[in-house]
Amino acid sequence: MEFVIAEEKLIYLLRTAGKTKFFLQLGYREGDLPRLEADILQMARRASPVIRAVTAFGTKFEMTGMIAAPNGRDYFLRTGWFIRPSEPEVMNFVTAYPAKLR
């Protein structure tokens, strides 16, 4: 499985109200997008995807796992991914947010 994260999705995490504060507190900055991308990819490669929806456009997945943030602490992150029917081996990153563990 190939994981793809578009740069604009990472920028979105650092510029969008509601997400910006969380990711800045973790120590991520727009000037270091490769670190954010690497941390999300590392978490995704270890996590087990859970199907959340299947539509004509593709399958939506959710993955939750631990990331080691630049501030030196570990956090649980929940991520959203999407697989298009035309690219069944490519999992595309959609979003990320803090995971609320039950």
Structure summary, number of beta strands: 5
Query: Which shape, going by the Cα principal axes?
Result: globular
**Rg, Å, rounded:** 13 Å
Poorly predicted residue ranges:
none
- Count every helix, treating DSSP H or I runs of 4 or more residues as helices: 3
N-end to C-end Cα span: 29 Å
Mean pLDDT: 96
Strand order of the largest sheet: 1-5-4-3-2
Order of helices and strands: EHHHEEEE
Beta percentage is 35-45%
Number of domains: 1
Helicity, as a percent range? 25-40%
Overview in brief:
This protein has 102 residues and is of the alpha+beta class. The protein contains three helices and five strands; from the N terminus they run E-H-H-H-E-E-E-E.
Could you explain the architecture of this structure?
By secondary structure, this protein is an alpha+beta fold. It has one domain. The chain contains 3 helices and 5 strands. It has helices spanning 7-15, 20-25, 33-46; strands spanning 2-4, 50-55, 58-68, 74-83, 90-98. The chain has a 5-stranded mixed sheet with strand order 1-5-4-3-2. Strand 2 (50-55) and strand 3 form a beta hairpin.
